[in-house]
Structures are given as C-alpha cells and as structure tokens.
Amino acid sequence: MKIVECVPNFSEGRDTAKIRAITDAISAVAGVSLLDVDPGADTNRTVVTLVGTPEAVMEGAFQGIRKAAEVLDMRTHHGAHPRMGATDVCPFVPVSGITMDDCVEYARLLGKRVGEELGIPVFLYEYAASQPDRRNLAGIRAGEYEGMGEKLQDPHWKPDFGPAALNEKAGVTAIGARQFLVAYNVNLNTKDKKIASDIALDIREAGRNRRDPKTHKFIRDAQGVPLKKPGTLKAVKAVGWYIDEYGVAQLSMNLTDITQTPVHIAFEEVRSQARKRGVRVTGSELVGLIPLKAMLDAGRYYLQKQHRSTGIPEKDILYIAVKSMGLDELGPFDPSEKIIEYRISPTFGPLVRLSIDAFADELSSESPAPGGGSVAAVAGSLGAGLAAMVANLTFGKRKWEPLYERMCRLADEGQQLKTKLLKLVDEDTEAFNDVMAAFRLPKTSEEQVRAREAAIQQATQKATSVPFTVLEACREIFKLALEAAEYGNPNSISDTGVAGEMAAAGAHGAALNVLINLGGLTDEDYCRKMRRETAELLNQVDADLQKLRELVSAGLKG
Is 106 in contact with 62 (CB distance < 8 Å)? Predict the structure, then answer.
C-alpha cells in the first residue's frame, strides 16, 4: 500500500475555531487520516499531521491550504515562530511503498495547483527544490512575511508557482519533500544532565567545538568562528536534559533521516557512549509516530545479533524491537497507536481477522462469499507458513550454523508470501462483491445498459486477476518447500510435504476461479492470454509437487 505523510504548518495557534475550520476541511477528504493536531500559543502556529494514499493526501493538503487562506490573515499575524504565509510550509514525507522522487512529484503537483487556483506564491524546498539555494527553508523564509513583498520583486526569487507578487492575506507558502523525522529519547540511569549533554555533543551531526589539547581553548578559523568536530551520527540533532517527571536524564534526539541513521543505530551509539562515562541506558521513548519499516528493521537487527531467525511473524519482530530498545520502560508501547501504517488501517481484512471457527461458519452459510477463491488463498497461506516454519526449525544447533543466511532468507520469503496470500483472502471476496454490485446497476436506458456492461467487465476482470495472483503466489511456495525439504531440519520433512500439498490445493483452486470468471469476459485476447498462463503455471506446480513428493518420500524412508 502506498502511504505518504504530509505535515502542513499553519500560522494560527490560538484561535481554536479557525484551527478547527482548517482541520475539518482536511478531514472531510475521503482516505485521509488526521493523526495529530499540535497548536502552540506562543509560536501562534499549528502543526498538522495527515497520512493516507498520495491522491487523498494531496487533496487533503490542498483543502487545508485553501481553508487557511480563507480564515487566516497574515496582515495581523504575530508569533514567536518565523513564518511567511497562512500555510507556512507543507512537506511530503515517504512512509510506505513510495520513494522520495514520488514525494517530489507530489510537491510539484500541489504547488502548481496552489499557485494557479489560489493565487499564492509557492517555493519548492528540500528535496523538491528547483535550485540549490532554495533547498534550505530558512533561506526561502528569510525576511518573513513582512519582507516577502520586496523579495518577490527580485528575479532571483521568482516563485516556482503562482504570482511573483505577495498575496497580502495568505502570504507565501513553501511546499517540499523531506525524509521522515523521528523524535526519539534515550533514558540514562542518572539524574546528571551534564552527562546527557556531553553524550549529545559527541553523537549529533553538528558535533562540538574543537579544543586545543594543550590550552583547552576553542580552535577558531581566520574569522574567529570556532571549528567543529563532527559527531558520530549523520542526520541527528541531539540535546541532553533532565526530566523531573521520570527522575532521569535523557538524550533527546531528532532523527531527520532514518535512512542514514536508523533508530536502533542511534540507540546503540548512545549505549556505547554511556558506557564510556560509567552510566547505563535503561530504555528509550518514541515521541509521536514511526514507520513500520523502521521498527521491523530494528527487530531484525537484534534478531541477527542473537543469531535467531528473522523470518518470524511481524508482531514477534516488533516485540523484539520494543524489548531490545526498552521502548516500554516509561509506559506501554502499543504498535497500533505508534506505528503509522497501523493507525491508518489494519494489516488484514475482516475475514482474516475472524477466528477459524467463525470463518468456517461464514464460509458454510448461504452467502456466496467468501467462497472458493478465498479458500484457495487460505490454503496457499498455510503452505507458505509451513515452509517458513521448517526454516525456523533449522536453527539452534552447531551443524546448522552454515545454513543461517539461507534459512533466514527462506523464512523471510515464506512470511512475505503468507502475508500476501492472507491479504488476498479478503481481496477475492471484495472482488466478487464488486461483480455483484455491477450486476445490480440500473439498466432502464441504453446509456445505463452500456455503463452497467462496462462496470461488469471491469469488475469481472478484477475478479479474475485476484485468483491469478493467488496462483502465482502458490507457485512461488514450491521454491521454498523444495529448498526446505533439501536443506531444512530432516525431522520436519513431512511438514515440507504438507506445505507443498496445501500450495498445490491453493493453486488448483485459484485456477478454477480464474477460468470461471473468464467465461464472463468479452475481451478474447485477454482470455486467451490468461488461459495460456494459467495452464503453464499449473504445469509447473504439478511438476514441482511431484519433485517434492519424491524428496519427502525419500526423507521419510531415512
């Protein structure tokens, strides 16, 4: 799923009615999740965090910018925070399934629309910047709202979009793309703020002032500016402080690019620095939200350090991450509240979240869905899960140590296929329901008949593609089952056989659903292609199943 975060900053932090008007405009957009609204009275500024699909988030951001231009007036605005517009900044942040280049494109599309439809000058900044001196937001905002009228007259500061003249009411807006920022604190077993501050100077990217080893005075350049000794962590800002509420000193960090310094690497570096000073890290605290990948990367890092399999269920990887970094020391760590993807939607659909007996009851009812397609996906997921299980059982003995990387990869791939197939359980039923909805469309006029037929064809093609994806995934399981049978724990050889049988059942069941849906399609070229590819995949499945049965039979004979 493609998920993007957007963090617009609005120049109002005191008038709750105006803030609510802006956030209501954002929330009204379907597909947008408003995760946080953080107003500040002294700064007279509100930071809003919204996430969702790119299209929904772009629309939500635009509606927020438009409403801010209506209800806010920069001519009367005053606050402690630097600002130049009613919507001061609006960055896009990649979360899941998208790249920074994608976010740059979203920033450009939004900037163009804001400039053209709202008449607000727009500068692109950070990764979206159109020229080097516009990358840094501070450079763009220099002069603030009061100086923007004159600044925009300079040809060098012609905005990327919109008029080259100040919008007196709405001001100027910067729209950009940046990496995800994680606010992260690490706890020490001391009340001494100085120790925390000293560690902060050593780890933050900006580092500390250089000193002459003999005189201990600052070393300065020709202009008298102190020279810096860079810290150990890239893209990290850090300070040390004492938290009276907890009774401990903390390292408070902003990780501005977790692709350069992941959370777990920051945690380990603080641990190392703490040991040098005779103190100990006792845990850590995540302020705000974090992408799922960052937590999974942390869990896998600690599993590898323990020489344990990384191919375990997602919730177990998260448990290792939480416990290894002590994220639950100061209070419970609830992944459903702290991980962005979990805040937006559950991992699986309603069918998969049913208990086994409830699913079987639903399956056996008079309702036509869920049906054979969903069952085929369930069968495949069980086969993938068994293949991963065999890999995970090939750990813990010295004779299996040379297989560590192979079994981790095999288990990882098994977990990925299992998750993919479980998601297809609900997708198959949803696709069937869409077909039924298309058949229920009105057909009292020629135009309605044409629209209904087009909807039926579109929905039926989707209902064909879902079981075909199940078939492809079941075919992939055999690569894992065959490898597990050959190299995995011999005591689990029968489990590899069952994995193959379930994968074969899922593949043949999915193929039946592909073929029955093709009967309702009029695109003959598409139908011929799908029949040919379905037959080819089934031939491969049957051949692999035979190989696997022979391996299992030989293994059972000893």
Answer: no
